[in-house]
């Protein structure tokens, strides 16, 4: 649904890792899925007339009569619900990042810069500093663009092994190495004595469970928690290693890039989405945050590829009992498809099943035992890159602002409102949308405005104890 | 919350410009400017509350048009309450959070001769403001709904009065007491407007059915 491109190969202690092309793709995946999801809602209007298999008669009539309104109302209702479903993880990620920044001083200490931002910002003149930061931002963005294009090319030429290997290495690094560093720093901050054996056990367990949850199957909440944690870790690394002006510039440029990459017909992300759609494939499982996973593991016999893919994804098997209650073959198949693929499959398949589902949810028809899936359970997806950049903004605000908590709070509210607006636009336009631009723009505006304008005002007010 | 934030932003912009355009060493002038900033901010907050009301009105109309049975899933009173709470929370957060953060650290309150009750009174003042914003939200929206302009002006005047009363801080009796009295009045008024009555209250308190 929303996209964010964050490519950031990292050069840390001599190790090169690419972490973000995935975010791009997962975002594009999101977009395609979300788009399909939304399109499927719209298509419900058309389907009952055209599809006769698996549709109980009474459903068809009611569908014909009330489809338009229901469609929009459902969109709005689910839109609101989806907003809430996304608020919570975004907030959690930001809270983790801010809490870490405030307590662990490691992440605010300047310990050098990434290789991707070679120009230092400690220069003598302001002009020199500005120039350096512009150059840094340019280098970073070009790296990101190159990585995205590379990924699109790999995907187009079906080099899935390479992509999967890349993803696995990135998540390995994040889950083991970065969390080891994080844990070490937290222990140092709180002066907790710890031995290597315990740490090894902890990190090993954390990492292995994380790999399993993210790349294979696992409880939904656990997977969501892991995704939030790795986003927070990545955001912390950015906050630490990006110098000030560079960071703000990068945020600004990346939201512009996101806008361009998703909406332009020749944009790499859009091409990726379209290719994925053509092939009816799921994109990379590891880097999308999904609020619900309604994968059916054993359905869809007609599509072996779907089955294979489905089994790869974490399954929260809510739908398994539903599959047994389906009494018509056609519906069973459709049910399988829609539940598995509503997030990743064609529009034409989704709506077939969404109608009885929506009947069930909206009209509470007791006869609809075909699917027990609530439309509410069709979750929203947001790319992890979005999480990361939101958290970078809020984290930087809390780390370096003179207004401190006021600024942090203002940026937080601004980002959430931006997210609301983006979701609203998504509900209206029903196509892939970039998640970054609106939120990051609001966030940046509020950061600079609060830091420079509101802060002195509030300071004076607090000093005199005036209240507004 | 967002709307309150935007109003704060604009009002501090105005204040900032005024300060930059004036002489920083002139103490009474600075204080005067601050007072002007506060008043302007209050007016701007109420203006934004009105804008928010307009926005919510449109949203309700949209929801009603789309709903199945012709009534919106959330009533205007609920929205008024939520709007008030949002305003209040944001205002409270902005007033208190830096104070709280500083309170975690070492220090002595009032060591330079200021009042020792600074934290306490700030806390009480913030609390009363949050409540007041909630009640003002209800009153304001009710006034807008039923076109009773005197209710709206009453809210604005109350807000100005409360902010103005804080000008006599650190003479806390001058600010806290009137604010609490106003809050009680606003609470009663909002309760009555929302459909409550003395009977309801008695029934609730005595747990009658």
Automatic annotation (TrEMBL), chain A:
Annotated region (Disordered), positions in chain: 1-66, 307-378
UniProt biased composition (Basic and acidic residues): 31-47
InterPro entries associated with the record: Pept_A22A_PS1, Peptidase_A22A, Preselin/SPP, Presenilin_C
Membrane topology per the record?
A: Multi-pass membrane protein
* Ranges of compositional bias, category Polar residues: 12-30, 50-60, 312-327
Q: Where in the cell is it found?
A: Cell membrane; Cell projection, Axon; Cytoplasmic granule; Endoplasmic reticulum membrane
Pfam families per the record? Presenilin
Gene3D superfamilies xref list: Presenilin
Name the Enzyme Commission number(s) assigned to this protein: 3.4.23.-
Molecular function per GO: aspartic endopeptidase activity, intramembrane cleaving
Q: How does it assemble?
A: Homodimer.
Q: What is known of its domains?
A: The PAL motif is required for normal active site conformation.
Instruction: Give the similarity note.
Output: Belongs to the peptidase A22A family.
Q: From the Swiss-Prot or TrEMBL record, give the protein name.
A: Presenilin
UniProtKB/TrEMBL annotation, chain B:
Transmembrane residues, as ranges? 31-52, 79-97, 117-140, 152-173, 179-198
Top-level taxon: Eukaryota
Cellular component GO terms, alphabetical: gamma-secretase complex
Predominantly, its location class is membrane
Signal peptide range: 1-21
What keyword terms does UniProt attach to this protein?
Membrane, Notch signaling pathway, Signal, Transmembrane, Transmembrane helix
Subunit and partners: Component of the gamma-secretase complex.
Q: What does this protein do?
A: Potential subunit of the gamma-secretase complex, an endoprotease complex that catalyzes the intramembrane cleavage of integral proteins such as Notch receptors.
In terms of PANTHER family, this protein maps to: GAMMA-SECRETASE SUBUNIT APH-1 (PTHR12889)
Q: Which family does it belong to?
A: Belongs to the APH-1 family.
Q: What is this protein called?
A: Gamma-secretase subunit APH-1
């Amino acid at each position: 649904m929303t996209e964010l491109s964050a490519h950031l190969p990292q050069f840390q202690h001599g190790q090169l890792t690419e972490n973000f092309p995935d975010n791009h793709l997962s975002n594009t995946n999101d977009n395609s899925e979300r788009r399909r999801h939304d399109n499927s809602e719209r298509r419900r209007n058309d389907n009952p007339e055209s599809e006769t298999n698996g549709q109980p008669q009474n459903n068809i009539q009611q569908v014909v009569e009330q489809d338009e309104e229901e469609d929009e109302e459902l969109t709005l209702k689910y839109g609101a619900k989806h907003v809430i479903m996304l608020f919570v993880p975004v907030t959690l990620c930001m809270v983790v990042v801010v809490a870490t920044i405030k307590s662990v001083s490691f992440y605010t200490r300047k310990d050098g810069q990434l290789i991707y931002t070679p120009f230092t910002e400690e220069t003598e003149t302001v002009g020199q500093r500005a120039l350096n930061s512009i150059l840094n931002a340019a280098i970073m963005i070009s790296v990101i663009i190159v990585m995205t294009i590379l990924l699109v090319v790999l995907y187009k030429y079906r080099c899935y092994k390479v992509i999967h290997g890349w993803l696995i290495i990135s998540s390995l690094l994040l889950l083991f190495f970065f969390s080891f560093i994080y844990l070490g720093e937290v222990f140092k901050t709180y002066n907790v004595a710890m031995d290597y054996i315990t740490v090894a056990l902890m990190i090993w367990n954390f990492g292995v469970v994380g790999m399993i949850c993210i790349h294979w199957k696992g409880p939904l909440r656990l997977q969501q928690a892991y995704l939030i944690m790795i986003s927070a870790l990545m955001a912390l690394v950015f906050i630490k290693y990006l110098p000030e002006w560079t960071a703000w510039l990068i945020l600004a440029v990346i939201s512009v890039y996101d806008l361009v990459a998703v909406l332009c017909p020749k944009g790499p992300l859009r091409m990726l989405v379209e290719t994925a759609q053509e092939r009816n494939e799921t994109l990379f499982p590891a880097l999308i945050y999904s609020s619900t996973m309604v994968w059916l593991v054993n359905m869809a016999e007609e599509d072996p590829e779907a089955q294979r893919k489905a089994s790869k994804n974490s399954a929260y098997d809510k739908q398994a009992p539903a599959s047994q209650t389906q009494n018509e073959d056609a519906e069973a198949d459709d049910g399988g498809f829609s539940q598995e693929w509503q997030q990743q499959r064609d529009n034409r398949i989704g709506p077939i099943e969404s109608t009885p589902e929506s009947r069930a949810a909206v009209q509470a028809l007791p006869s609809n035992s075909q699917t027990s899936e609530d439309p509410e359970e069709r979750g929203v997806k947001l790319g992890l890159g979005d999480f990361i950049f939101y958290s970078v903004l809020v984290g930087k605000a809390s780390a370096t602002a003179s207004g401190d908590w006021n600024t942090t709070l203002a940026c937080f509210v601004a980002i959430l409102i931006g997210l609301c607006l983006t979701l609203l636009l998504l509900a209206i336009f029903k196509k892939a949308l970039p998640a970054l631009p609106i939120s990051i723009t609001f966030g940046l505006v509020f950061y600079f405005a609060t830091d420079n304008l509101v802060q002195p005002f509030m300071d004076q007010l607090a000093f005199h104890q005036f209240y507004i | 919350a967002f709307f309150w934030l935007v109003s704060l932003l604009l009002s501090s912009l105005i204040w900032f410009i005024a300060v930059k355009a004036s002489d920083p060493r002139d103490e009474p002038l600075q204080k005067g400017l601050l007072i002007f900033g506060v008043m302007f901010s209050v007016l701007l907050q109420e203006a934004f509350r009105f804008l928010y009301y307009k926005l919510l009105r449109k949203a309700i109309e949209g929801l009603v048009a789309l709903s199945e049975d012709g009534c919106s899933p959330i009533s205007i009173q609920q929205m008024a309450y939520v709007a008030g709470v949002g305003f209040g929370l944001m205002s409270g957060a902005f007033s208190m959070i830096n104070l709280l953060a500083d309170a975690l650290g070492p220090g002595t309150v009032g060591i330079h001769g200021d009042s020792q009750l600074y934290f306490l009174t700030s806390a009480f003042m913030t609390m009363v403001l949050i409540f007041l914003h909630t009640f003002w939200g209800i009153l304001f929206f009710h006034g807008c709904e039923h076109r009773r302009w005197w209710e709206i002006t009453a809210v604005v005047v109350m807000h100005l009065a409360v902010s103005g009363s804080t000008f006599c801080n650190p003479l806390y009796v001058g600010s806290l007491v009137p604010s609490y009295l106003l809050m009680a009045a606003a609470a009663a008024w909002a309760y009555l407007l929302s459909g409550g009555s003395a009977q309801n209250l008695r029934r609730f308190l005595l747990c009658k059915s």
